[in-house]
C-alpha cells in the first residue's frame, strides 16, 4: 500500500515538472488498435439547411463574411479549441456552403487543400487559378493547396455545395497559411471550363500533360461520373461498397486531390453490404436515395442530403432497402494521407456471415 501511495505521489511530482511515467502510460500511448477521437455520427439535411437559411438572413457574402458555410463538428472532437478544430473526423473538415444570386465569395488561397461537391442549384461558378469553372449538381471540383479560388452565383436560385478540406490535419501539423487576393475576384487567364474541355475525351489526355501536375483537371462532371457507374453496374457489385469509383488525377492516376480522396458509390436496390473496417476515415453525403449504415452495431438511417462519418477502424456496412431505386453516396476520405505514411490497413468482419448484429438505432438531432 505504501508503495502505491509513494508511486502516486511520484507521478504527481513528475507531472508538476512536465514529465511523464512511461510505465503507467505505455498502454495509452501504444494502443493495441486505434482509439479514434471522432465517433460515428449523422447530421440530417433539414437541420443543416435550416441553420444555413438563418445564416442567409444574417450574413451577406462578400460584405462582412468571406464564406457562408455551416460546418460539421464531430461530438468526439467538440472539446478541442477552437471549434473542435473544424473536425468532422480527426483529419477532415466538411461543410455545406450557400451562395445567393448576385453574391461573390472573395478570392483567397490557403495551404489546406479543398474540394467541392455541388448539391443543388444552377448558375454558380468558381474561379481556380485563373479558370472559370461552372457548377452543376453532381459535379466534383478540386481546389489544390495554395491555389487562388473564388465563387459567384449568376443564376436565379441559391446554390449549395459540400466543402471538404484537411483543416484538422493542417492545424495539428501547424502548417496552415492563408492569403487574401487584392481584388474580389481573380483575373481569368484561360477560356471558361478550360480543363474540362481538354479532358472531355475521357481516357485520353493532351500530350502536353505527360509530365504530372497537381491539378490538370479541375471539374469532374456528373455526366461522366454517371457513365462510369453505369459501366461498372454491368458486373457484380463489390460485397462491401456496391459499385464505387474514385476521382483521379489524369496525369498521375492517383487521387484527384493529393491529400483528400473522393468517391462516388452506387448501392443497387436491395443491396446488403458486408461489414469491414479500415484505418482511413470517411465523410459521406447522400446524393440520392435512402438506406442505412451500421457502425459498430449502431444503425444510422440516412436519406437524400444527409451527412454521416465513419471514423478510423470502425466496423461498417451499407444497406439499400429500396426495391426499385439506387442509392448514390458521395464520400471523401483521408486515404492519401494514410497511404503516404504506410498507416492504412483493413479487415473484413468474419462473424454472422459478415453482417453486424444491430444493438442500437441512432437518433439524430432534428431541432
Automatic annotation (TrEMBL):
InterPro entries membership: Cupin_2, GDO-like, RmlC-like_jellyroll, RmlC_Cupin_sf
CDD domains, A to Z: cupin_GDO-like_C, cupin_GDO-like_N
Source species, domain of life: Bacteria
GO molecular function, one term: dioxygenase activity
Domain Cupin type-2, chain residue ranges per copy: 96-163, 264-329
Record Gene3D superfamilies: Jelly Rolls
Key words of the record: Dioxygenase, Oxidoreductase
Protein name: Cupin domain-containing protein
